[in-house]
Amino acid sequence: MTLAIASRSHLTAAEMRGPVAETTDLLADLKLDKVHLARYSPRPHTVSARTMPDDVPAEEKKRRLAALETLQEQVVAEINGQYLGQTVEVLVEDQVKGKWRGRTPQNKLVFFSDDGRDWRGQLARVQVTWTGPWSMQARLAEAGCAPGEVASTEASEVGARATR
What is the pTM of this model? Predict the structure, then answer.
């Protein structure tokens, strides 16, 4: 397992035994939809700022952050890939570059085309035709698709609870 993680995130063997490895392992294991990552910097007026030197060069911090961002991109691409071919409901926000943009109950960004009506503020049932780590492409679902048919009932319920 260590080699696979090192290969994916480009960390050295020495880093794999320390805090950087723990963070990488945690992100790989949790498979979160969204994380907020930042380069390390000492926070003023904290014990660590007073007692621990900031001995990691800026370029190394940048490299470590890039490795974590790459890992997270892979995780989210895998999560979103589960939606491929599924019919999902999106709340349409607006039109961007000729495509409608909306979000699923799980806050997944979805783009679809339809010149036939103004979807702004409406719920649309769409079938996912492409997935990437940060968004998905879809087409309007066929009339025969059951309303509310989404990637998974469990995911829908979690998304609904998260938005309450």
Answer: 0.70
